[in-house]
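ok trying again, last paste got cut off:
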Amino acid sequence: MSGDLIRYHKPSTIWKGIQAGAILSKPHISWLIGNGTQIDFWRDTWVIDIPIMEYIDFPSHLWKIVR
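nice, full thing came through this time. structure:
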């Protein structure tokens, strides 16, 4: 292999199935927040398995303030 990109295009039936599943499930996916006392915006994992606070370069002593 020369390391060059392969230019190839063919419709994927698998991808179409994933897209259809996303469209069907999107209206039924949500968060149940309640009164909000158990929510920690910075430490909870919202979209991925890593809290938002791990993506932000923020002095550790200030995390107590933003809680």
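cool. Residues 13-25 form the longest helix (13 residues). The two ends are 53 Å apart (CA to CA).
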